[in-house]
Amino acid sequence: MPSILFVCLANRYRSPLAAAFFCQCLEQAANRQDWSVGSAGTWTKAGLPPDGRALQDARDWGLDIKAHRSRQVNAVLLSQSNLVLVMEAGQKEALQVEFPREREKIYLLSEVVDGVPYDIPEPNDPDTSHQEIANEIYGLIKRGFKNICNLALNTINI
Fold first, then answer.
1. What is the reported pTM?
2. Which of 31, 84, 125, 148 sits a CA distance of 20 to 30 A from 23?
3. Please, what's the b/e burial string for 20-34 (b: 16 or more CB within 10 A of its CB; e: otherwise)?
């Protein structure tokens, strides 16, 4: 079963939304198979609920992420994932340094989808609204869905 782990800083906004958007795309896909889709944070406390803005933005997209609870990224989660998609270059670098065995499966979401590495800002970013961030994540998942799936499936066969 292919597995994808979305990672952000606190695992309370960006990565839970990305995971929910990806699951929504999986549900709509023809010839879908079983996937394991999760999320984690690089700097978080385990067990925290989603940020209120994430709950609102998920509802706006017809999704319910109320049951989500934050969790810290760790070696087990990474080893169980075929593909790890992060939101910021610093997260990618930190994970690749801390977990060198997993470095080949860690990518920026933007580089997988658009071929151009760029950061997806935190919802606290003063220059970007949380709705803009949710729209960006949704757009990346939607237009990059096939690329993301293919990359995850290719890592299974390596």
1. 0.95
2. 125
3. bbbbbbbeeeeeeee
